[in-house]
Specification:
Keywords: Hydrolase, Metal-binding, Metalloprotease, Protease, Signal, Zinc
Number of domains: 1
Shape: globular
Pfam families: Peptidase_M48
Protein name: M48 family metallopeptidase
Structural class: alpha+beta
Number of helices: 9
InterPro entries: Mito/Outer_Membr_Metalloprot, Peptidase_M48
Organism: Spirosoma agri
Amino acid sequence: MKKIIIMMFSLAFAVTACEKVPLTGRKQLILVPNNDMLSMSFTQYKQFLDTSRVVSNSGDAAMVSRVGDRIRQAVESYMNSNGYGKRLEGFKWEYHLVQSNQVNAWCMPGGKIVVYSGILPYTQNEAGLATVLGHEVSHAIAEHGNERMSEGLVANGLLQAGQVATGIATSSKSPQTQALFQQAIGTGGPLMYQYFGALPHSRKQESEADHLGLIFMAMAGYDPAEAISFWQRMAKAGGGKAPAEFLSDHPSDARRIADLQKLLPDAKKYYNGSRRTS
């Protein structure tokens, strides 16, 4: 069963993947129209801000806007110069600091960014914040949200197809046998997809956002070596609370830091050619 599901997903992706992620060149499945993604994003972003404690007229809020704008300029420069400008169509960049103890930040499709105040003790400086914003913006640039939604649509379609095929294959069996097979497909299929499809691919997207984010922060004039320092601080603060990597939608701290160290020499080239920050 596991091999069949993996083969079906691989075939679906091979046939329909028609987009490539900037910088990495990875092929991806994009099915949802960009206008629909942006419309949903802008509506949800406004609703979130309307019900949150947005911080304004403070030094930290100004820093979020300042770093966010430099990341934006780096992203637009790279995308427009390398044939990916179409991915930025409809973007309406916004950067907001929200009062919250959550150690987190995010960027929705269309450049809608939120930084929670709880992460600032870990970023410590502008380069640390650039690490976070570079990573989050990269999710939007790489259209990871659309990709996950598209894969979900395919997964649901394949599950339904599997249930139909099972019904046909077991039509001559007793009702009890048919029910057992349908139950196996109904419960086993989603679990298979979760552990052998969704979670591994989510970890790949996170690593990809780390890669793109490292380049974008370097292009924006922030020392990419600061990204390693930031994730080391996060790892130290996180302790042992993270699940085993294969059960997580994020790579382990150790893997993330090791991957960034490998990418650092290339990122330094972009940094050396950028406007340096003090």
